[in-house]
């Protein structure tokens, strides 16, 4: 049997105890997108509960390292949202985001992470409906492509330092 | 005082680190005064069996170069860990996977296919491939297992220090050897870097930063850089901002963009995303379309940003 096939069999055997639900990490900027998500909640819009929101002060602060770490530690998808271009509270913070995210998307593809797992868009404080739509979109897409199982995969390949691969459990 | 016992081993590497040890030049004479070589396959004729016969912690300083791709390399890593007081990951491959770890962007099957079948220069009508176990008339033949992915030395055993570089420069190798041989014990642990500090290559680079933004990306074989002006600002992907100093900014000193061989600065191990962030911060773009046009000019971002650090990156390999 080839290594790829062995790996697929080994991964298939993990996580059989509970039905799989996509785990999506959303990095939202404080000034627009987090307020936009709040707006979705206040308006009682329905969207899947698969998204864990991490609020940061500015989308320009979302180091691509955080997104890589999310995937490496078990996220199935990652969302990045910030203020629309021209609306940044810090004037040009999101200019960095708009340059980094397309470049990061290319790198993620080279690592074999499907484009469906990574969504980057702008959500203003008033766009609760857009936020809800984006969450529905990425959750649907991730459900289609299935679980990523990065930590299990790397452990199977013998990568050491298990602490690099622990799932994110809110520091618990 | 008895002489120091020094060993050196090569795993998945090119042999450049062995040569780098010779770069200490006239200090070689001092090294020979100071130390006995007890294992160095590149230069001396010690067999694995000899090393196996050494008592535990017999070797004072063992420099390990090369990444780990096969079961033989893992076996020797475990043996040398037991036989060495101080085990140092020497060079980019041992520390971060180095060039061999670029193979982690593809699968074991694809590597075998390229090496033994599909490369235009390969003629293999019988579709022969190396196998781990081959029964033959003279007995059973076993080859080391080819692992699914390239690993760092620290993925296999505890490492006491890291000597970054591809290869580490001579002055730094000598500083590290002196520290290990005579000085107070250098900082130990996988995070400890020998012979260099946590600053970036830019810190040692003589080129002037003019605080301009990147207007277009340029490639070294298609454009001649202006001397004394920051290469990154000129649009050459120079990895100085995301790379640990220690080499004395050798490459920017000769008009070449830094390739990032010393690995990540500071606390992160993922130099690739650090470089990606740096590039994204200094584009001359105020619209999304312009930003996209610029970043699309970066040739092979993954292979460039992770040229030496794929096995130390967050993701470590291809899906």
| Largest sheet properties of chain A | 4 strands, parallel
CATH architecture term of the largest domain in chain B: 3-Layer(aba) Sandwich
As a percent range, the share of helical residues of chain A equals 40-55%
Give the largest interface: A-B, 39 and 44 residues
CATH class of the largest domain in chain B: Alpha Beta
Task: Specify the structural class of chain B.
Answer: alpha/beta
Between the first and last Cα atoms of chain A, what is the distance in angstroms? 39 Å
> End-to-end distance of chain B, in Å?
52 Å
Return the structural class of chain A: alpha/beta
Overall mean confidence score, pLDDT of chain B: 91
How is the main sheet of chain B built? Answer: 5 strands, parallel
In CATH, the topology of the largest domain in chain B is named Rossmann fold
Give me the Rg of chain A, rounded: 17 Å
Overall geometry of chain A: globular
Task: Characterize the structure shown.
The complex is a heterodimer of chains A (about 170) and B (about 325). Chain A is globular and about 50 Å long. The longest helix of chain A has 18 residues. Chain A has a single domain, classed as Rossmann fold (3-Layer(aba) Sandwich), CATH 3.40.50. By secondary structure, chain A is an alpha/beta fold. Chain A has six helices and four strands, in the order H-E-H-E-H-E-H-E-H-H. Chain A has a four-stranded parallel β-sheet, with helices on both faces. The model of chain B has no long low-confidence stretch (mean pLDDT about 90). Chain B is globular. Helices cover about 30% and strands about 15% of the residues of chain B. Chain B has three domains: about 130 residues, Rossmann fold; about 40 residues, no CATH class; about 120 residues, no CATH class. The N and C termini of chain B lie far apart (about 50 Å). In chain B, the strands form three sheets. In chain B, strands 2-1-3-5-9 form a five-stranded parallel β-sheet, sandwiched between helices. Chain B has a two-stranded antiparallel sheet with strand order 4-8. In chain B, strands 6-7 form a two-stranded antiparallel sheet. Chain B is of the alpha/beta class and about 325 residues long. The chains are: A alpha/beta (about 170), B alpha/beta (about 325). Chains A and B meet through helix 1, helix 3, helix 4 and helix 6 of A and strand 8, helix 7, helix 11, helix 12 and helix 13 of B.
């Amino acid at each position: 049997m080839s290594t790829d096939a062995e790996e697929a069999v080994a991964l298939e055997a993990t996580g059989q105890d509970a039905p799989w639900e996509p785990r999506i990490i959303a990095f939202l900027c404080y000034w627009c997108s987090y307020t936009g998500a709040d707006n979705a909640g206040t308006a009682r819009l329905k969207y899947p509960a698969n998204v864990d929101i991490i609020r940061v002060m500015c989308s320009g602060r979302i180091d691509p390292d955080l997104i890589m770490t999310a995937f490496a530690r078990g996220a199935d998808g990652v969302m990045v949202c910030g203020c629309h271009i021209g609306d940044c509270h810090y004037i040009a913070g999101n200019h960095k985001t708009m340059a980094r995210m397309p470049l990061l998307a290319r790198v993620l593809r080279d690592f074999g992470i499907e484009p469906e797992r990574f969504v980057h868009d702008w959500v203003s404080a008033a766009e609760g409906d857009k936020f809800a739509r984006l969450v529905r979109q990425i959750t649907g897409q991730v459900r289609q492509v299935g679980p990523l199982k990065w930590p299990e995969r790397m452990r199977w390949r013998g990568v050491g330092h298990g602490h690099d691969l622990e799932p994110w459990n809110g520091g618990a | 005082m008895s002489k120091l016992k020094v060993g050196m081993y090569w795993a998945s590497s090119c042999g450049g680190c062995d040569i780098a040890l010779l770069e200490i030049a006239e200090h070689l004479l001092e090294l020979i005064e100071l130390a006995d070589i007890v294992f160095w396959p590149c230069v001396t004729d010690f067999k694995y069996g000899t090393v196996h016969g050494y008592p535990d912690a017999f070797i004072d300083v063992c420099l390990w170069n090369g990444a780990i791709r096969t079961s033989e390399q893992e076996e020797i890593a475990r043996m040398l860990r037991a036989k060495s007081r101080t085990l140092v990951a020497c060079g980019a491959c041992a520390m971060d996977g180095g060039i061999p770890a670029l193979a982690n962007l593809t699968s074991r099957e694809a590597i075998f296919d390229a090496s033994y079948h599909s490369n235009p220069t390969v003629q293999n009508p019988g579709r022969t491939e190396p196998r781990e176990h081959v029964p033959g008339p003279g007995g059973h033949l076993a080859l080391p297992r080819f692992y699914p992915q390239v690993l760092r030395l620290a993925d296999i055993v505890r490492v006491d220090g890291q000597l970054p570089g591809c290869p580490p420069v001579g002055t730094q190798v000598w500083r590290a050897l002196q520290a290990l041989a005579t000085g107070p014990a250098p900082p130990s642990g996988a995070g400890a870097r020998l012979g260099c500090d946590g600053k970036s290559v830019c810190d040692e680079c003589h080129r002037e930063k003019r605080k301009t933004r990147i207007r277009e990306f340029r490639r070294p074989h298609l454009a001649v850089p202006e001397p004394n002006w920051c290469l990154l600002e000129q649009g050459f992907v120079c990895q100085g901002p995301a790379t640990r100093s220690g080499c004395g900014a050798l490459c920017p000193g000769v008009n070449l963009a830094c390739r990032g061989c010393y690995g990540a600065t500071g606390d992160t191990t993922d130099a690739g995303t650090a470089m990606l962030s740096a590039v994204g911060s200094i584009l001359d773009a105020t619209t999304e379309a312009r930003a996209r046009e610029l970043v699309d000019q970066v040739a092979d971002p993954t292979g460039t940003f992770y040229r030496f650090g794929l096995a130390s990156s967050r993701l470590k390999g291809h899906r």
